[in-house]
User: What shape does this take?
Amino acid sequence: MKNQYTLHMTQNNIAGSGKATSYIRALDLLSEMLLIESFGFADTNIWSVTSVQRIAELRELVAVQQRQGTDSLWLSNEIAPSYLRGGYCSAALASYASFLAEVNQENSLFDVFKSHEGSGAELSALLDAEPQDIETLLNGLKGTDGEDVIRRVKARLNQHIFRRMLKSIYNEACCITGLNIPQVNRASHIIPWADDASKRLDPSNGLYLCATYDAAFDKHLISLDDDYRIILSSEIKDHYTSESVNEYFIKKEGSKINLPSTYQPNKSYLASHRSQGYF
Assistant: This one.
């Protein structure tokens, strides 16, 4: 879980703030503190804990030790007292609880996706209606980051679950190139995220594309016809003539994408996408 949390913190915190490094170090030190004295808390390896409730219980224990000041049994020559007394451990636990709540909820939503047998539109409505009880899971910790933390978590959660669904139905490969390197592939919305909230979680409103084609699709430089064949905007054909453009785009025109076995791109969504470009 440490690797996942590290990635989460790296992606969602301001570069240069030092928060990610400080929080990860604080949680590592908490594991060391619990080895010095567990006070009955059996989960001495923080990174093995996946229960938000258990993290909340540990945060209460940390608060008690903070009040102990220099008398805390957790303080030692190897552990800087500022991590405990300065509140870094408590803040790190709040952050970790939010992360776990998000992961647990994402897994729950993905299970709904895997068991669903209806249309993409029905799935989108189902996922949107699924209890998104982040408030309960956070167990009152939202105040540590401000009142808008719930909204930010939910937005990020929906983006994560959409990408995870697209990655699954396209077998982790770009539907144009077959490239299966997840670091360079994107879950592209056909109807943009900001344009229609009801379609945000509809997997038939998505294409799994490597970064170059994702950018081109987003800018309406490429699209798909009703037979799922690649079409090019006149903006590409009339203005760009390099060999790279020929290789990446001109030669792809008319090629059919690799279609998933379920939740194929919705043709009405594609028609809407085409209407916004010069095709």
About this structure: The beta strands are 185-189, 206-210, 222-224, 230-232. The mean pLDDT is 87. The CA atoms of residues 178 and 256 lie 12 Å apart.
